[in-house]
Amino acid sequence: MSEFKRFRCRRADEAARLKHRETFLSAADFIWPVFLVEGKGIAQAVPAMPGVFRYSADTALKELGKLVPKGLRSVLLFGVPKKKGVEQAYRRDGIVQKAIGLIKKRFPAVEVISDVCICSYNPTGHCHIGDNDRTCAVLAEVALSHAAAGADCVAPSDMMDGRVFHIKKRLREHDLGRVRIMSYAAKFASGFYGPFRDAADCAPESGDRKSYQMDPANRDEAMEEIRADLDEGAESIIIKPALSYLDIICRAKQNFSRPVVAYNVSGEYAMVLALSGGLKKSAHLMEETLISIKRAGADRIISYFVPAVLEMLSEKK
User: How far apart are CA 190 and CA 227, in angstroms?
Assistant: First the structure.
């Protein structure tokens, strides 16, 4: 009988663990989601998400000034208007549109990704205006306004059928085809979005989003949704949420040769903080959570932990 194989020597101390570690986090992995409001000098705390704020554009620039030197490369922008009105989502002087120009002027190397949806602007709180194709036409105008303002990438998050097709067509009509599309291709009807809906003021006035967001039980359909968005012109895809859908991330990475982005959503963020006892005590559980998402196959991760993880990574250098 041969001797059994020994593994514990790989874990004897930190040096041994590092030598055998397979998955590492880096600053380049992360995209920071930013909630934008009108005004100046504003940093409104989001009660359901400790450490997360709604920023006016000038305050967001100050925060970027702290994070870019630590390695931040990408931001994802969400607009939260004072007054509802779908037309505000595509105004050339809107919240997001103004912020895009300011960020690109101050930090030209930072990738600016804009969330393309109308839920925060729509009085109903829904991601549509009743009709799928009419909504796609509106979303194409939103994407065009973001692209014209200087966005590097637009990210439709509505889950309407054909939105990528409509957006790509509209961008090309205005010679903005170079602007990339990162679609929320597999966005599930999840219970983990609650804190986000508070932050973005986009809870549905009535009903739910199950008629357009994906059934959490469906894995094969997620692959169909992803393939459709890539066929329509998306350069990369987002899977949202992350932790309950690691199998979807893994399968998407295996099936498609395009970048796979995972959204570590608000409920996952709040859950980690609740379990660890707050943001200051969350480093270990935060790191384990983010590593699990990258290990599953995510090329990049959207996360509210970005400021904390950049601080952690800078301390490890």
Answer: 21
Q: Output the six-digit token pair for 151.
A: 């966005």
**What local confidence, expressed as pLDDT, does residue 128 receive?**
97
- pLDDT tens track for 211-258: 999 999 999 999 999 999 999 999 999 999 999 999 999 999 999 999
Confidence of residue 1 (pLDDT cuts 50, 70, 90): low
> Structure pTM?
0.96
User: Is position 267 within any domain?
Assistant: yes
In a domain, 239, yes or no: yes
Residue positions annotated with a catalytic role: 187, 240
Structural domain of residue 165, as residue ranges? 25-316
CATH code at 188? 3.20.20.70
Q: Is residue 18 part of a domain?
A: no
Specify the number of domains making up the chain: 1
The span from the CA of 182 to the CA of 233, in Å, is 9
Q: Omega of the bond prior to 156 within 30 degrees of 0, cis?
A: no
Q: What is the 3-state secondary structure (H, E, C) of the chain?
A: CCCCCCCHHHHCCHHHHHHHCCCCCCHHHEEEEEEECCCCCCEEECCCCCCCEEECHHHHHHHHHHHHHHCCCEEEEEECCCCCCHHHHHCCCCHHHHHHHHHHHHCCCCEEEEEECCCCCCCCCCCCCCCHHHHHHHHHHHHHHHHHHCCCEEEECCCCCCHHHHHHHHHHHCCCCCCEEEEEEEEECCHHHHHHHHHCCCCCCCCCCCCCCECCCCCHHHHHHHHHHHHHCCCEEEEECCHHHHHHHHHHHHHCCCCEEEEECHHHHHHHHHHHCCHHHCHHHHHHHHHHHHHHCCCEEEECCHHHHHHHHHHHC
